């Protein structure tokens, strides 16, 4: 700050004193071009633009409307998801757990239905021609699950009401656990559950 004051005093005055000798300042600039800092009582005022914006917002008059508009429900924007093969089928991607859950839900219901109808356990169902049905249904359901994901449609954008994407995930998880528990119980027991 001291250097700034010295520089301004040199620029303002045409005559400078250096080591007690008077000499003419060659860098002299007329005083009208350089603001003088010699006024000691000059007040410095700093304003924030945020304060000005706040004052403008508070001073605008609000006119009450006769009928308040009804708030419209916001439509859920369709979330863009990556359609790359490696992203869709990644370990934490949208496809693997959903496809496995959907297959487990159908497999669990089919295993219980065949067990009740024919009296066969899960292993007997698979060895009695159930493997071909399992592979066929798995391919069809996997393709049906992957096609919307490759088109960029997110599962969350299509879930409404009671049937949400989270509910489908949890139902699939329980079906996977149920199918494993059914097979393990029948293996330990040595026969059908029912």
UniProtKB/TrEMBL annotation:
Q: Which domain of life is it from?
A: Eukaryota
User: Could you tell me which species this protein originates from?
Assistant: Bauhinia variegata (Purple orchid tree)
Instruction: Please state what the protein is called.
Output: Uncharacterized protein
């Amino acid at each position: 700050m001291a250097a700034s004051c010295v520089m301004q005093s040199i620029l303002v005055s045409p005559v400078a004193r250096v080591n007690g000798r008077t000499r003419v300042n060659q860098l002299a600039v007329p005083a009208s071009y350089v603001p003088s800092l010699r006024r000691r009582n000059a007040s410095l005022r700093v304003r924030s633009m945020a304060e000005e914006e706040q004052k403008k917002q508070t001073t605008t008059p609000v006119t009450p409307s006769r009928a308040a508009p009804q708030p419209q429900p916001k439509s859920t924007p369709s979330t863009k998801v990556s359609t790359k093969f490696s992203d869709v089928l990644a370990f934490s991607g949208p496809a693997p757990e959903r496809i496995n859950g959907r297959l487990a839900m159908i497999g669990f219901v089919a295993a219980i239905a065949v067990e009740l109808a024919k009296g066969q356990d899960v292993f007997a169902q698979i060895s009695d021609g159930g493997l071909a049905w399992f592979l066929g249904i798995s391919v069809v359901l996997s393709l049906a699950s992957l096609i919307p994901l490759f088109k960029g449609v997110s599962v969350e954008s299509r879930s409404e009401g009671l049937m949400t994407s989270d509910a489908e995930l949890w139902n699939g998880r329980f079906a996977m656990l149920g199918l494993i528990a059914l097979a393990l119980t029948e293996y330990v027991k040595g026969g059908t559950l029912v």
